[in-house]
């Protein structure tokens, strides 16, 4: 089994698990975590698709996309956590 195939399978598995968790869970924090796992799974598949096994080189474009996705993921996660705290705080008043 080659390295890129391992990353493809692991990324697809993470993506599938995250989609299942998004569909079955109602808790806001768990849904936010599922979105994070989904983004990482997609990044793994994207990085694995940029690997050329014949030459042993990687394409820098998927790496740039994955890095940009991680930066966006951190920003979106912070905004969603702040929103979840604000919504959850109102129900306790």
Automatic annotation (TrEMBL):
- Membrane topology of this protein: Multi-pass membrane protein
Alphabetical GO CC annotations of the entry are: membrane
Record localization: Membrane
Q: Does the keyword Transmembrane helix apply?
A: yes
| Designated name of the protein | Putative monovalent cation/H+ antiporter subunit C
Which stretches are transmembrane? 6-23, 32-51, 63-84
* Domain of life of the native organism: Bacteria
Keywords for the protein's UniProt record, in alphabetical order: Membrane, Transmembrane, Transmembrane helix
